[in-house]
Amino acid sequence: MALRIGARLYSVACDAQVIVIAAPKVDVTLLCGGAPMVDEPATGDQSRHASATGGGVAVGKRYEDSEVGLEVLATKAGAGTLEVDGRPLTIKEPKRLPASD
Predict the structure, then answer these.
(1) Average confidence (pLDDT) over 44-73
(2) Where are the extended beta strands (E) located within the chain?
(3) How far does Cα 67 stand from its chain's mean position?
(4) pTM for the whole thing?
(5) Residue-number span of the structural domain to which 52 is assigned
(6) pLDDT attached to residue 50
(7) For residue 35, is it within any domain?
């Protein structure tokens, strides 16, 4: 899937939602809970079965994969684990501000 900056993606395996902050230059498959994320929210009564091996998605956190240059911001929490091409995304550490003396 070709991701673009500002794209909103929805998990079909759990309630997680993300926005793409930095898009990779290559096509990648972004997964949540073992299923590809989609660009439209699921409608109707769908059963959701997410695999939460990494602790799930935390709202307000930025997740990244430095290998391809992907960064997403979680806008809704979910039980699934974010992965790109089989690699779990890591939580991006905040930038440290210089100490003010």
Answers:
(1) 79
(2) 8-10, 17-22, 30-32, 35-36, 62-65, 70-76, 82-84, 87-88, 90-91
(3) 15
(4) 0.83
(5) 8-91
(6) 53
(7) yes
Within-domain flag for 75 = yes
In a domain, 100, yes or no: no
Token pair in block for residue 26: 């290559």
70 contacts 28 by C-beta, under 8 angstroms: yes
Structure tokens at 11: 């998990």
Number of domains in the chain: 1
Could you tell me if 77 and 56 are in contact, meaning their C-beta atoms sit under 8 angstroms apart? yes
Q: Is 82 helix (H, G, I), strand (E, B) or coil?
A: strand
Whether 34 is in a domain gets the answer yes
Structure tokens at 54: 């990494």
Contacts of 45 (CB under 8 A, 6+ apart): none
